[in-house]
Design brief:
Layout (H helix, E strand, L loop, with lengths): L9 E4 L21 E2 L6 H4 L2 H7 L8 E3 L28 E4 L5 E7 L8 E7 L5 E3 L13 E6 L2 E4 L3 E2 L5 H37 L1 E2 L2 E2 L4 H29 L5 H26 L11 H9 L8 H14 L1
Antiparallel strand pairs: 1-9, 2-5, 3-4, 4-8, 5-6, 6-10, 7-8, 11-12
């Protein structure tokens, strides 16, 4: 890391109190954009041998965070800073953290100038002085994975905890991002598949006008359409996963297409399954409502679906 003190061993992360305050956060929470990536994406490629031997022993539970109040979907614009060691701590605004109590935190922060080349990647351990968390946020879905704000207050991080070289943080994040889009699309497939099964079961059991709903031709058509959309989404996700694994030139576009298509289609499938349940589908005693609540955020996570369209269009126009 650039420093006037080349032998200094720590970077310092700190809350920037000059940033606008979010009304939904407790007083003192100020943040723009701070990106976490799963440690599993980077552990084998960017860790030095000494750091690797230390951290891999702690590899029990990892975290991922999202927070883009000012930067939106721009992963190259984190406001958090961890520059030269010195007496004055610099800014590192908090972000949303997915996960209750991870052991390791992989943090993207700015150590240089503006743009992607100014971003570096650090590893923090649970219990690091100056690292703390806000209240558990109340969400519509995804309640099995707690979400909190992560706060840095004069948080000293050893320079040895840097992953890769200075300025390589953006590239590290991008390597995990495309895989993350496949992951979130795959989660959508699971919810949609379960919803189709629940809808089929309900149609075979629920009776109206003297016969089961499965005898209604309109509902038969709807069920057939749901199953067809599910299979199409599954094939697209598998195709993108193969392209990513083979490191093909079209992998980024295909991952974006798969994330866009699967999350949109699978949410529609879950929503239609709830509709088929009628009023029962809105009761928490029926699992279909949970799939609708949980899967809605998939159109936002790992880059919004609008961002996916931008990536796809840019790829097409530059071809």
């Amino acid at each position: 890391v650039k420093s006037r003190e080349p032998r200094a061993s720590h970077l310092r992360l700190h809350v920037d109190a000059s940033k606008p305050q979010l009304s939904s956060f407790p007083k003192g929470f100020h943040w723009e954009y701070f990106l976490f990536v799963p440690f599993s994406h980077v552990r084998g490629h960017f860790l030095g041998s000494k750091v690797k031997s230390h951290f891999l022993k702690l590899l029990l539970l990892l975290c991922q965070a999202h927070g883009r109040v000012y930067a939106g979907g721009n992963p190259s614009a984190p406001a958090g800073r961890a520059p030269q060691p010195g007496p004055q701590p610099q800014t590192a605004p908090p972000s949303h953290l997915q996960g209750a109590s991870p052991v390791l935190y992989v943090v993207m922060c700015r150590t240089g100038g503006e743009g992607p080349k100014g971003i570096s990647c650090l590893v923090l351990e649970k219990g690091t002085p100056g690292l703390s968390f806000g209240k558990k946020e109340k969400k519509v879905g995804w309640n099995s994975q707690p979400t909190r704000a992560v706060i840095f207050e004069d948080c000293a991080v050893p320079v040895a905890n840097r992953l890769g070289e200075e300025g390589h943080g953006f590239n590290i994040a991008m390597q995990g991002l495309n895989g993350g889009r496949i992951n979130i699309a795959s989660c959508s497939l699971g919810a949609a598949h379960a919803s189709v099964l629940l809808a089929r079961e309900h149609l075979n059991v629920r009776k109206q006008f003297g016969e089961v709903l499965a005898c209604n031709q309109y509902l038969q058509f709807e069920l057939a359409q749901m199953a067809t959309r599910l299979v199409a989404a599954r094939l697209m996700v598998r195709s993108a996963a193969r392209a990513l694994q083979e490191q093909r030139n079209d992998a980024v576009a295909l991952c974006s297409m798969a994330k866009l298509f699967a999350t949109d289609e699978c949410f529609a499938i879950c929503n239609q399954a709830l509709q088929m349940h009628g009023g029962y589908g809105y009761l928490k005693d029926y699992a279909v409502q949970q799939f609708v609540r949980d899967i809605r955020v998939h159109q936002i996570l790992e880059g919004t679906n609008e961002i996916m369209k931008m990536i796809i269009a840019r790829t097409l126009l530059q071809a």
